[in-house]
Every structure is written in structure tokens, then in C-alpha cells.
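Journal club prep — side note

Before the paper discussion, L.F. wants everyone to see what a predicted structure for a comparable chain looks like in C-alpha cell form. Sequence:
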Amino acid sequence: MSARRRTLLKVIVLGDSGVGKTSLMNQYVHQRFTQQYKATIGADFVTKDIQIDDKLVTLQIWDTAGQERFQSLGVAFYRGADCCVLVYDVNVLKSFDTLTNWHSEFLRQASPPDPKTFPFILLGNKIDIDGGNSRVVSDKKAKEWCASKGNIPYFETSAKENIDVDAAFFCVAKNALAIERAHDIYFQPLPEAVVPEIEERGGGCAC
């Protein structure tokens, strides 16, 4: 029975407008890429089922608008998230410089139980552009930023060429699942009669 249990993980993708958030999601879920750019309005989500060990996991990946005027919508979409993917364009310094703001704003609005252990993953996207000659953010600089935020996993990706997109989202799922399992272990010893509300909700509270 446990092998058939499905786990829903809510993933939020954040970053400046134009860094390729939607393209990364479309490449991962639908294996397609388009050159036409269309800004995301508000938020939208896609889902993908993957197998991790003995668990069937459904990733619910939320694509959020990068424009500041939509950031007030954040609290409604961030709550209940199991992982946050931060994306920047390796060719645009500003998109890297705003990562700290996205990181802190997510923690402020999502209010996870333990901000220090909440799983983030950083993606440096568009490494294919100009054969890498136009990049302005080095791999070293990105890894230093990740280290300063608690050793966040880092992937360099290309949505267009499908470079490391699957590996990045598989890491997202594994890290989110590890946190969820830790919570399961934490709640397990509690007597059923003492906390019936938690038992009734089961695994549904993750979303």
C-alpha cells in the first residue's frame, strides 16, 4: 500500500521577469521550448508525476509573475509550499542581485515552520546564450551566494537546450520529500487522542 501512496509537493518558482521561469517549467513538464516571450500574469501552475524510491510524487509547480506589481499576490500562493526554486539569468547581473530579496520575501510571506531548514534551490538559467561568452555572473559567485544562505543546491540550466532541467527538478522533489518525511517522523509519536485534528488532515496539509 505504501508504494502506491501519492505525495503532493507544492513548488514555487521565483525570480525576476524574463529569467526563463516559464520556459524551464515547460521544458521540464512538456519537453518544449518557444522563443516567444510572454510575461506571466499573476500565477499559474503545472503538474508532473515522478517516482522517487517507493513513492509516487506529484509536483505542483507554481509559476509566478516576476513583475513587482504582482508580488502582493505572493502570500496566497506561497503558503503551504514544500520547496522554492529561485531563478536568475547568468547574463543579467540585476537578476542575480535581486535573489536575496526574493529569498527573504518568500520566507516572510510563506512563513514556513523552520525557515533555516526550508528547501531552496538556485538555478542559473540561459547558459546557452552566446556560447556562454555573455555571462556576467560566474559559477563561483553563485555558489558563494548559495553557501551564505545555508548551502542551497545550485544548478546551471538552459531551458532552450534542456541542460540540467530534469536534474534540477528531481533535486527539488528529493529535497522537498526529505523535509516532508522528517515532519512525518516528528509527528509519529504523538498519541492519536491528543491531536485528532492532525490525524484527520493526514498528508493533505502539505499543499
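L.F.'s comment for the group: Helices lie at 21-30, 74-78, 93-97, 99-110, 139-148, 165-187, 196-201. Keep this in mind when we get to the figures.
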